[in-house]
Known about the structure:
The chain is globular and about 45 Å long. The chain has helices at residues 44-61, 78-88, 98-104, 111-119, 148-157; strands spanning 6-12, 15-22, 25-31, 40-41, 96-97, 132-133. The protein contains five helices and six strands.
Amino acid sequence: MEQITARSLLATPLGQVAICIANGKVVEVGFTQADNLPAFADSEADGELAEEAARQLSDYFAGERKDFDLPIAFSGTKFQQAVWKEIQKIGFGKTATYKDLALRIGKPNAARAVGGAVGANPIGIIVGCHRILGSSGQLTGYSGGNGVPTKIKLLELEGISFK
């Protein structure tokens, strides 16, 4: 992963979120329990991007935003990046399954590996891995925040039904 050049912290209804920027792109968004995590910016532009990402996430949690308009950069294997790019295509209030993603990336037998990639998504919420469900629409794990309870709240925020 690139060197973080700015970080912003955002208090959300589901807990504190850290937004990390590297050279003009959002590279990480995730829930954090760290109380001593400082917000900073190495440049005015990256600081502004971190603030804009925080504003867009605030709007999302307030029910006023359905998509994000932010430059992002993934750091992961080619397989992970392919999965994350497919997740980006799943809009607000929509879902897909691990198998759907496996088919979309041309690896129909890789649903379990897709699950691993989904769990490793570094840009949570913005790249909506919470929208990925098990094959019959059931909830599966979630690596962000408090796990499945956080996933449930994100799905409810978007009006998504699940089993």
